[in-house]
């Protein structure tokens, strides 16, 4: 086709050129399209002013005018949040502290309930030869009624016959003769009584005491610790009068307390709570 100019452009078999994408600029020569482009550009500017430039300008204006106030408000908010967190933490800390205090108190109460409780007793055994009583073995005993052991237990005991009466100057804080014997440490468990060394007193002294010719005093000392407080030492001092009587032809001996000042419980050492 000789008069088909565009047809001649494709005669070489090459790919046809891509047509440009229509834009508002390409249609600038068209009055209608030109008006449409103008309105489009104005709307874009209005949108930019409303949503971008205006808010930014407002922000900077208010920042310049109320910058200190905004900063103060922000600081106050942060302080309130910090205080709230701190208060919550303090309340939790106080609550935990209170719970720990209650637990500690309960632990101490339990320890007190479990600590050794020693009960004093005296056993009497006649020493017979050919059926005749020639002496009496008097043995102090300690029984632990608590659930835990008394540890590091040491003891001593003594006795003395006083013709007539006991001198006021007599010191019962030490054994007879004033020398404390070497004491071997032991343990007193629940249900396993510990016996102090037996005191052998002849029948003659016992008979004199029964007749009121003299007084026999037995006394002693015990030290121990509990399993909770190794640094604390408990001591018990005791003293008793030997009072023999005859019942049904047999000598029976009772042991009332001698002096209250010679019968005391004390505690020494540093408590773990201090």
Topology:
Layout: H1 5-9, H2 31-114, E1 118-129, E2 132-144, E3 150-163, E4 186-188, E5 194-195, E6 199-202, H3 203-210, E7 214-226, E8 233-247, E9 250-254, E10 264-268
Antiparallel strand pairs: 1-2, 2-5, 2-6, 3-4, 3-7, 7-8, 8-9, 8-10
Describe this structure as you would to a colleague.
The chain is α+β, with helices and mostly antiparallel strands and 274 residues long. The chain folds into two domains: 21-114, no CATH class; 118-268, no CATH class. It contains three helices and ten strands, in the order H-H-E-E-E-E-E-E-H-E-E-E-E. Strands 3, 4, 7, 8, 9 and 10 form a six-stranded antiparallel beta sheet that branches. Strands 1, 2, 5 and 6 form a four-stranded antiparallel beta sheet that branches.
Q: In short, what is this structure?
A:
The chain is an alpha+beta fold.
Helical stretch count?
Answer: 3
Q: How many DSSP-defined strands? A: 10
Class by alpha and beta content = alpha+beta
* Rg: 53 Å
Distance between the termini: 120 Å
In the residues, how many domains can be counted? 2
Which stretches are poorly predicted, pLDDT < 50 over at least 5 residues? Answer: 1-25
Strand content: 25-35%
| Shape type | rod-shaped
Percent helix, as a range, is 25-40%
Mean pLDDT: 77
How many strands, what sense, and barrel or not for the largest sheet? 6 strands, antiparallel
Q: Helix and strand string, N-terminal first? A: HHEEEEEEHEEEE
